[in-house]
Amino acid sequence: MPPKPFEPVVFASAEASAWAPLLAAAWAAREQAHAPYSGFRVGAALIRRGGEVVSGCNVENASYPMCTCAERTAVCAAVAAGMREGELDAIVVVTTADTLTPPCGACRQVLAEFAEDLPILLDNGRERALHHLNALLPFSFTGRNFRPAP
Ligand code: ZN
Question: β-strand 88-94 against 119-123: which pairing, if any?
């Protein structure tokens, strides 16, 4: 059994003040979304071990399968800035949809690469909910499934 990823207690509730900088970054990133086809704008912001906040937005494309979600653009930006496995502490996903918008299946898989028990806060400006990735993607497939034991 791999060690449980570090989860700062500051992200233990949906109303915790520690979410404020991530929420602000996610809403700001949502404004940058490239969503000319769906109009569905999504913002995300994650926090790396050490406290750096990295944001992302959805980027659509005329070739629809090439669209990229906000969560994955945030992860890619964080990796480019040096984030590695086990260094992702929390993520926020914001939209103005009537219902909260959880990460899609592809994003759940990408997030699991970095933190299988990731706290995920969803917000639509009217309600908020805190989930954990291991509940949204149980029995996930990661490098431990094929890497030789250390
Ligand atoms: Zn997604």
Answer: parallel
The confidence score (pLDDT) of residue 149 equals 80
Spacing, Cα 8 to ligand 1 middle (Å): 24
Number of H helices, E strands in the chain: 4, 5
Q: What is the CATH number of domain 16-138?
A: 3.40.140.10
**Could you tell me the residue ranges of all domains in the chain?**
16-138
Angle in degrees, 0-180, between the axes of helices 105-112 and 70-80, rounded to the nearest 10:
20
Dist. CA 89–CA 100, nearest whole Å: 21
Cα 148 to averaged position of ligand 1 atoms, centre (Å):
30
Nearest to 93 by CA among 127, 123, 136, 72: 123
CA of 150 to the centre of ligand 1 (A): 32
- Residue 6: band (very low, low, confident or very high) from pLDDT cuts 50, 70, 90: low
| Nearest one of 32, 133, 137 to 88, comparing CA atoms | 133
The pTM for the full model equals 0.92
Residue corresponding to tokens 């060690």: 3
Q: Which residues are catalytic?
A: 71
